[in-house]
Amino acid sequence: MIETDRLTRCYGPLIAVDALTLRAEPGQVLGLLGPNGAGKSTAMRMIAGFLAPTSGTARVCGHDVRKEPLAAKRALGYLPEGAPSYGEMTIREFLVFMVRVRGLDRDIAFRRFDEVVMRLELEDVLEQTIGTLSKGLRRRVGLAQAILHDPPVLMLDEPTDGLDPNQKHSVRMLIDAMARERTILISTHLLEEVHALCNRVAIIANGRLLADATPAELEARSRYHGAVSFSAAGSGVSREMLARIPNVASVEVDPLDGRVTVFPRNSQPILEEVQALLRTQNLEVSEIQLEQGRLDEVFRQITTQPRGAQA
Amino acid sequence: MSGVTAIMRRELWSYFVTPVAYVFMVIFLVMAGVLTFYTGDFYDRGLADLQPFFDMHPWLYLVLVPAVTMSMWAEERASGTLELLFSLPVSISQAVLGKFLAAWAFIGICLLLTFPIWITVNYLGDPDNGVILAGYVGSWLMAGAFIAIGTCMSTATRSQIIAFILTAAVCFLLLLAGQPQVLDFFQDAVPPRAIGALGQISISRHANAIARGVLDLRDLVYFFATIVAWLAASVVVLDLKRTR
Question: Quick one: which of B48, B43, B51, B95 has its CA closest to B73?
Answer without folding.
Answer: B95
